[in-house]
Amino acid sequence: MNKKQWEIFCSFRQEFKEKIEEWSKRCPTLASLQEAAAKAAATPPYPLETPVVYNRDLDKIGPEDEIRLIVIGDNPGKDEQLAKNNRYLVGQAGKIAEGYFRRNPVLQVDFRKNVIILNKTPVHSAKTNQLKYLIKNGGEEVKALLEESQLWMAEKTGRLHIDLLNACDSSSFKPELWLVGYGELRNKKLFVSYRDKLQEVYKDYPEQWQKVFLFQHFSMNRFTIDLDDFIKKENLSLEPDHLLENLQKLGICHRKELFN
């Protein structure tokens, strides 16, 4: 990162860290509610240690690191919330993502060095769908927290991406923003507030909006299955040199489906 980009990132990181601390104190009953949600969904018992999760991998990013992607998942799961982790995308989906970029060096992305990983909300649940239980049974306080966290993450993430792009110089790589997992971005779904706020943030930045892409989840290889199906359907080249172009075409296709 150049000096300006580093300052932008550090400002975001500090603000995000402070916001996590604030949200963590907001709902003292959140952990018991998350346990009840997991039990209601017949999730095997697990140690629930961090109800609202900051991504400590952000603290490992230094000014010498080049940010090529901002990847947005849904919310922290069982592995991510463990106190020994407090990192995003470190479960099975994260391992699949890491392996994908390792197997495709043409993309020039080290998933643990060149990627800022964030979520649509930092509120934990064993499975994303269990957030519905929190909304239904947590009262206005928890419902407001989930809504506020989505709006904050969408606005601040969008601004981070836009500002990093605007601060690029001739030697800088222009980072892309990948929304990974879009089922809950549809109308009346969990993350529709995130979707609408994100689009609002980019309203006056159409050029930067072209660097926003949507994909299937990495979990269960849905990301690669979807890409392979798209390449076959569109009769696109399978040559490695065309991989980035194919990914961008797919990401634009899904973006148009979700954002009119």
Mean pLDDT: 96
Give the DSSP E fraction (strand runs of 2 or more residues): 5-15%
Based on secondary structure, the structural category is alpha/beta
Uncertain stretches of 5 or more adjacent residues: none
Largest sheet: 4 strands, parallel
Strand order of the largest sheet: 2-1-3-4
Roughly how much helix do the residues carry, as a percent range?
Answer: 40-55%
Cα-atom radius of gyration: 18 Å
How far the N terminus sits from the C terminus, by CA atoms, comes to 33 Å
Please provide the count of β strands.
4
Number of helices: 9
Give an overview in words.
- With 260 residues, the protein is an alpha/beta fold.
- Helix content is 48%, strand content 7%.
- The protein has nine helices and four strands, in the order ααβαβααβααβαα.
- The chain has a four-stranded parallel beta sheet.
- Helix 3 (92-103) links the parallel strand 1 (69-73) and strand 2 (115-119).
- The two termini are 33 Å apart.
Topology of this protein?
Layout: H1 3-26, H2 30-40, E1 69-73, H3 92-103, E2 115-119, H4 131-137, H5 139-166, E3 176-180, H6 192-201, H7 206-209, E4 212-215, H8 222-234, H9 243-258
Parallel strand pairs: 1-2, 1-3, 3-4
For the structure shown, list the relevant keywords.
260 residues, 9 helices, four-stranded parallel sheet, alpha/beta
